[in-house]
Design brief:
This protein has helices spanning about 35-40, 55-65, 85-90, 115-125, 195-205, 225-235, 245-250; strands spanning about 1-5, 25-30, 30, 50-55, 75-80, 100-105, 110, 130-135, 145, 155-160, 170-180, 210-215, 220, 255, 260, 265, 270, 275, 280-285, 285-290, 295, 300-305, 310, 315-325, 330, 335, 340, 345, 350-355, 360, 365. Helix 3 crosses helix 5 (about 195-205). The protein is α/β, with parallel strands linked by helices. The strands form six sheets. Strands 14, 16, 17, 19, 20, 22, 24, 26, 27, 29 and 30 form an eleven-stranded parallel β-sheet that branches. The chain has a seven-stranded mixed β-sheet with strand order 5-4-1-6-11-8-12, sandwiched between helices. Strands 15-18-21-23-25-28-31 form a seven-stranded parallel β-sheet, with no helix packed on it. Strand 2 (about 25-30) and strand 3 (about 30) form a beta hairpin. It folds into two domains: about 1-215, Alpha-Beta Complex (Spore Coat Polysaccharide Biosynthesis Protein SpsA, Chain A), CATH 3.90.550; about 250-365, Hexapeptide repeat proteins (UDP N-Acetylglucosamine Acyltransferase, domain 1). The longest helix is centred in the middle third of the chain and has 13 residues, at about 225-235. The chain contains seven helices and 31 strands. It binds guanosine-5'-diphosphate-alpha-D-mannose and magnesium ion.
């Protein structure tokens, strides 16, 4: 089965994590984000993937390779200018086999939805396109889908305004997981920027557009720091079925063999190779330490992601935040409240960073520069 995965967005909402790396390959727990999608799709029979890239395909290809390790074929296509979600699909038309149905996916969803069930329903319905659907409390950032009882789609409202929600009592949104027939390509003009959400789905209403409710599935668009952190916690807690669960085991704790830990590690936690945790330090719960992270004496790291090679000084408080690769948080500094510290940042002693502050790669904050 073939899948086209859209990875052409700039990932601006996840900066500074995406300042130097494309969103699909930023690290989530212990592997590039996209690896979760590939492992999940492999489990549903996908063995041939075309990545539709906007910019920097080389960085995505470097991280994911040709797919041999996953027993998949991975190909990378770069569109000359951003074509939008349908234009990007049209651009790879020639690589899609003439005879079959295929999947299309947004490249930023962490999920364990039952795609096999979605394909089976698509076949039963004789659908042209079947959208995977998940329930949310607030649909304003998504594509809202209204269906009949027989799951034919009545309306598709991308990023609905509040007045469009009147009379709707529960919200099913498009999960960015599509089963498509090749006929969908006929609705997309070539060589143009076309949005599948705004221009194709509305035209297919009543013409073979169906929704498949992914009941009981985990689903998260990891495109903001809050959701990236929540996705991390959900992987650590086993709320989503992923390959990480094996390493975490029954005690929800994965600590690499060579870790030197004198302080406490409280599960769920994932501690990578080469980490050092000094006496009196407290790591966990809900913590990821990447490879080669150092946590100083008496420091506290909780509900946080600290990526490869970062250093947390003695007595620091690092909670509810993301610390990028090789960042240095010096003695006694506090990072909390959704802060995102970019790679190679230096946070000097006595800084207090909070309230979702984003510090861009390479920045050096002198001692006491910022106190929230
Ligand atoms: N190749 C290519 N070219 N890819 C693109 C382009 C483009 O011009 N524009 C966006 N993409 C990719 C993004 O990289 C992402 O993987 C996917 O298409 C969706 O774009 P987002 O920017 O993440 O859209 P969104 O999250 O606001 O909304 C979309 O996803 C929601 C679910 O998360 C829509 O499809 C909604 O309907 C949906 O509910
Ligand atoms: Mg998105």
């Amino acid at each position: 089965m073939q899948a086209v995965i859209l990875v052409g967005g700039e990932g601006t909402r996840l900066r500074p994590l995406t300042s130097r790396h494309p969103k699909p390959v930023i690290t989530l727990v212990d592997r590039p984000f996209m690896t979760y999608m590939l492992e999940w799709l492999r489990g549903h029979g996908v063995d041939d993937v075309i990545f539709s890239c906007g910019f920097e395909p080389a960085k995505i290809e470097d991280a994911l390779g040709d797919g041999a390790a996953l027993d998949m074929r991975l190909r990378y296509v770069r569109e000359p200018t951003p074509r939008g979600t349908a234009g990007a699909l049209k651009y790879v038309e020639e690589q899609i086999p003439l005879d079959g149905r295929f999947l299309m996916l947004n490249g930023d969803v962490l999920t364990d939805a039952d795609v096999s069930g979605q394909i089976a329903q698509h076949e039963r319905d004789g659908a042209t396109a079947t959208l995977g659907l998940v329930g949310v409390e607030d649909p304003s950032a998504y594509g809202l889908v209204l269906c009949h009882g027989d799951h034919a789609v009545d309306r598709f409202l991308e990023k609905p305004a509040p007045n469009q929600l009147e009379g709707v009592d529960h919200y099913l949104i498009s999960a960015g997981i599509y089963v498509l027939e090749r006929a969908v390509l006929d609705l997309v003009p070539a060589g143009q920027n076309v949005s599948i959400e705004r221009e194709v789905w509305p035209r297919l209403v009543g013409q073979g557009l169906f929704g498949y409710v992914a009941d009981g599935a985990y689903w998260m668009d990891i495109g903001t720091p809050e959701r990236y952190l929540q996705g991390t916690f959900d992987i650590l807690e086993g709320n989503v079925r992923t390959g990480v669960l094996e390493a975490l085991g029954d005690d929800f704790l994965a600590v690499a063999d060579d870790v030197q830990a004198q302080g406490r590690i409280v599960p769920p936690a994932h501690v990578g190779p080469g980490c050092t945790i000094a006496a009196g330090a407290h790591v966990g719960s809900l913590v990821v330490l990447g490879a080669g992270v150092t946590v100083g004496a008496g420091a506290r790291v909780e509900r946080a992601v600290v990526l490869d090679g970062a250093t947390i000084g003695a007595g620091c408080e690092v909670t509810d935040c993301i610390v990028g690769p090789r960042a240095r948080i010096e003695k006694g500094a506090v990072v909390r409240g959704g802060a995102v510290i970019g790679e190679d940042v230096l946070v000097g002693e006595g800084n207090v960073l909070a309230a979702g502050i984003k510090v861009f790669p390479g920045t050096e904050l002198p001692p006491g520069a910022i106190k929230f």
